[in-house]
Design a protein that fits this description.
The chain is of the alpha/beta class. The protein has one domain: Alpha-Beta Barrel (TIM Barrel). 42% of the residues lie in helices and 15% in strands.
Length: 347
Amino acid sequence: MTSKERVRNVILHKYVDKVPADFDAVPHVQEKLIKHFGFSNIHQVKDKFEIDICDIGPDYIGPELKKYKIEGDDVTEDHLGHHVRNHWTGTEYNGLCCYYPFNNFTTVEEIENFSWSNPDHFDYESIKKQIDTNKDKAIIIGHEGPFQVATFLRETDKLFMDMALKPEFAHKIYNRLVEFELEYYERIFIAGDGQIDILRTHDDYGTQISTLFSLDMWREYFAENTKKLTDLAHKYGAFFMQHSCGAIRPVIPDLIKCGVDVLDPIQKVTGLDPQSLKDEFGTEIAFHGGIDTQGVLPFGSTSDVKNETKRFISILGEGSGYILCSSQGLGGDVPLENIEAMYSVPR
């Protein structure tokens, strides 16, 4: 069974020869793993860990973006218009938003007149080449979704006030972002010629203990746009994976109604106990992630990591429907031996 077959079958809750695996790590950890194994690139690390999923995307070829420094940190303008400061924390580099282009906007007209990111500014011709070099892998595309990107364009406290008091303003931001995503992703799907397996968008709707806003507010601002994105993925024979950090259990039934096929990640937060998730939703949605990057991976022993990995495989992987991965991108505080331990567990 190829990786592509394995991943597609597991999402459909069909037989697989083993639980498929994914890999996500910050660049600093990727560099450490490459050096640790004496490899020359991250693809060799993924092959060693028997990773089934390959993340691809088009290169940006638009107008030159601003670059400058703040207190020695590199700052880069994103194609969406916000600025990201690359800051060393002591264990890894973190991207910190340091300029929000919508912060002083007060009218819908200002949003309409903004110089929005253009789907023409990407090289879709590179997609086929990336797929051709990873033919047996499950191909995944996607980046931050409309909510997450909106928090880069306008500070979160202002955005929440908009959602409560200026709904037309907030809707305009989210809907305009989805317009870009629908065209951008459709061009990738067309270039992929039926070989793209998963579209994943990243929108963090939760905290450690609850959602960031009410379920009614989620439905008002995000249900329709989520359905548009899932419909696009399904139109091209792909699955839709919703990434959302936090305690989002109340939203899961709505995600399923919107056509979401895979929920990512499964964190150690209120409401996301793997057994209860499997019992309630296990036949309706597949699960991705789960091995805890806040506790067991950075602070546990290799035995702790192996036992936790076995637990997730036995619970969420029962009868198919689970893709092994860490609950977040592996950070600089995770010992390399614990990463090896997670992927050494028989699947």
